[in-house]
Amino acid sequence: MKVTKKQKELQAKILDTLYVRGPISRIDIAHQTGITPATVSSITSHFIKDKLVEEVGEDSSDKGSGRKKILLDIKKNHQYFVGVELSEKFISFCLTDNKAILLEQEVLDLDIHADTDTFTTKNIATLIKSFIKKFEELNISAVGVALPGHHSIKDHQLLTNNPIWKDIDLNDLREIVGIPMYFENNVKSMLIYKRVFGESSIDENLILHHISRGIFCAYMYEGELYAQDNRLVGEVGHTTIQVDGELCECGNRGCLQTFSSETWLVKKAQYIFEQMDETYLKKIVSDPSDITFHTLLTAYKLGDPTIILLLQNAIKAIATNIINLSMIIDAQTIFVHGNIYNEPSLVQLLEEIIMQRKPLFSHENKPKIKVIPYRTINGALGACALCVSETYMKA
């Protein structure tokens, strides 16, 4: 039966509500969406027949007399998706079903200097197809790719100032792989995951503040990624922390990145290695070029006072940035993500600085700060969530 554009819109709206707020009853779906109860009942009956939705029991919170509301939820194993994250440090793959249940994962560690042939469209396509081939019996429905930069929606190009990705053409990648593909910035992909598959059954406004090579944040406002056509939005790494600070690669001084990004922290640690005789860095590596961010965390745990100060100052700058964001952007929850949060004492410092900020108004509600434990497959899981969103929740 042919489905009209209006029917597709109603189906997408109902599935969006089921994913974000489910388990939920038919009448509550109607209240949340403004769709008539009869239409909700008709559409969800179709989903149940298609084994996409299932009844999962009575609503125990319903204390009224009479017939209890029956809850509906998304049914697992309806379709299967592959997620991929492209990073200069690794390429990660994961296989999930339509409820983001992780079925398989794989991470290919990279050396940006030794693996230069990896960063081509043809090779990336070969790696993706090789991973998909392992699960031919599942008939993979789509592939999501979490990108290390911006995604030009108009022409499906990867936009980044990192030269290693200059030979990646997303249109050619889609053509070679040969099944539906969706592309999005890696941080935005992870934020889609938190909205669709997060712990909350309330559709909150969310921020995801991510630290890696650079610093970027994504904003989810009323269920939609904010300012998709403006590539400057989210580039918080280039907001000014100190007007007369160090010269950033963007040409301005005192950017947050120069205080807190992994790239700059490693660069400063290399300088410390070369200039200071007493540093634990020299007990961990023999050459400054071998210093990684993991090296810094190891020196921090060993009690190196210079590295402790370096990372604490990085956290203070991040906390300042997050406080400023919370005064500009309406968000109920701010997620933070990055290797730096693998150190509990640095997380504690971040939380203390943010909580110590005095409210301007007596009724001011501070956003919740939540750490996303760092895993190399987080972006790939976000890419699977992107597939789910595009497949079920878009008209």
Textual characterization of the structure:
The protein is built from 13 helices and 15 strands. The protein is of the alpha/beta class and 395 residues long. The protein has three domains: 5-74, Arc Repressor Mutant, subunit A; 80-199 and 377-392, Nucleotidyltransferase, domain 5 (2-Layer Sandwich), CATH 3.30.420.40; 206-331 and 333-366, Nucleotidyltransferase, domain 5. The protein has a five-stranded mixed β-sheet with strand order 6-5-4-7-10, sandwiched between helices.
Quote the average pLDDT: 93
> Which oligomerization state do the chains in this entry correspond to?
single chain
Estimate the global geometry from the Cα principal axes. Answer: globular
Number of helices: 13
Order of helices and strands: HEHHEEEEEHEEEHEHEEEHHHHHEHEH
What class would the helix/strand composition place it in? alpha/beta
List keywords for this structure.
single chain, 395 residues, alpha/beta, Arc Repressor Mutant, subunit A, Nucleotidyltransferase, domain 5, 3 domains, five-stranded mixed sheet, 13 helices, 15 strands
